[in-house]
Amino acid sequence: MKAFFGTFVNKVDAKGRLSVPAPFRAVIQGRGLTSVAIHPSLFESCLEGAGFDRFENLESQITDTFVPAPSNDAAELIMAELRELPLDGEGRVVLPDEFIAKAHLKDQAAFVGQGRKFQIWEPSALEALKKAKLQRVLAATKGDA
Amino acid sequence: MKAFFGTFVNKVDAKGRLSVPAPFRAVIQGRGLTSVAIHPSLFESCLEGAGFDRFENLESQITDTFVPAPSNDAAELIMAELRELPLDGEGRVVLPDEFIAKAHLKDQAAFVGQGRKFQIWEPSALEALKKAKLQRVLAATKGDA
DNA sequence: TGGGATTTTATGGGCGTCAATGGGATTTCA
DNA sequence: TGAAATCCCATTGACGCCCATAAAATCCCA
Questions:
Q1: Strand D bases, protein C-beta under 7 A
Q2: B45 in any annotated domain
């Protein structure tokens, strides 16, 4: 299964349109899909996306009951905010305003491949996150030595 | 399995193109691949590369969850910066600008074989590293004698 | 074994194609 | 009928693909 990897920064235009990087489109279209499924991250100021197939099992994770079940919380929150965004003829998606707000996007957006999924970040926020992650990795490595 | 070994210095041209040394190409093509997978090192000012097959299990190292996990940090950082660079008809790759910047490359790049993978260094930085390594070896040897 | 011929490598440059982007026209829905 | 969403086309800049050259390594045969 081809994966999402690499980082690509594209522009968000006045209409809220954003080109999905060609390598990511190749993954999506390689599965016969013509849209991407995107939702705001529950924990970070970014969006998360993949082919819609990634979220199909989410439905099955929700216990179908008439009594509220706390174990369903995360899946239910994601389902509630999940959107299927069609790719236009040029490979772009239109980001809903709420998504732009949640990820604090301005005129640029960075697609970050993470294997089965990808994230969309405001570029400067992504830089800060990467610095923090690298610090954690370096600290953990030093601990081993 | 054939390994990467030896050091080869080639030019980075105005287009950011860089010839992959023929012996390294032989390793790659011996596995039926037509591209190299490269990412900046997390620990040093250099790039690391291999056939893409070396990175295929990286995806499975990332726990697929909607909750961030620090244990995924290293794999996520590499996945985010990993690029698959196709070899052109003459056995060259085009280095992205970020890669050139991260490794401080100017007009030359040194391929250094490391067995399963190889590194790409700015030649003078490589010299400094080799000196330092040799010093450590000598110091350790003196301690033994 | 020497030396010329051939092949392989590394490198430079030109050109066509495609990706990314912007703007306008058309449709859709309230 | 107005606002928003969708579609279509134009531009431009990057990238892939092709060929040309030169140097180095290899081969081959007398």
A1: 5-10, 15-20
A2: yes
Closest CA to B25 of B17, B33, B37: B33
Q: Is B70's CB within 8 Å of A112's CB?
A: no
In angstroms, the CA A26 to CA A50 distance is 12
The whole-number pLDDT of residue A74 equals 84
Q: What is the pLDDT of residues A77-118, one digit of tens each?
A: 999 999 999 999 999 999 999 999 999 999 999 999 999 999
Q: How confident is the model at residue B86 (pLDDT cuts 50, 70, 90)?
A: very high
- Structural domains in chain B (count): 1
Q: What is the pLDDT of residue A137?
A: 96
Chain A residue nearest residue B73, CA to CA: A133
This prediction's pTM? 0.92
What residue numbers bound the domain in which B121 lies?
7-144
Cβ distance of B62 and A136 shorter than 8 Å: no
Closest nt to A94 (CA→C1')? D5
- Closest chain A C-alpha to B90 CA, distance in angstroms: 23
Residues B126 and B122: their CA atoms lie apart, in Å, by 6
Is A69 inside a domain boundary? Answer: yes
DSSP A69-109: -GGGHHHHHHHHH-EEEE--TTSEEE--HHHHHHTT--SEE
Residue B60 sits in a domain of what CATH number? 3.40.1550.20
Quote the CA–CA distance of B36 and A54 in Å, as a whole number.
Answer: 28
Determine the pLDDT at residue B123: 97
Percent of all residues in chain B with a pLDDT value above 70, rounded to a whole number:
97
Number of alpha carbons in the 13 Å side-chain half-sphere of residue A7: 23
Tell me how far apart the alpha carbons of residues A28 and A33 are, in angstroms, rounded to a whole number: 6
How far apart are alpha carbons B91 and B107 in whole angstroms? 18
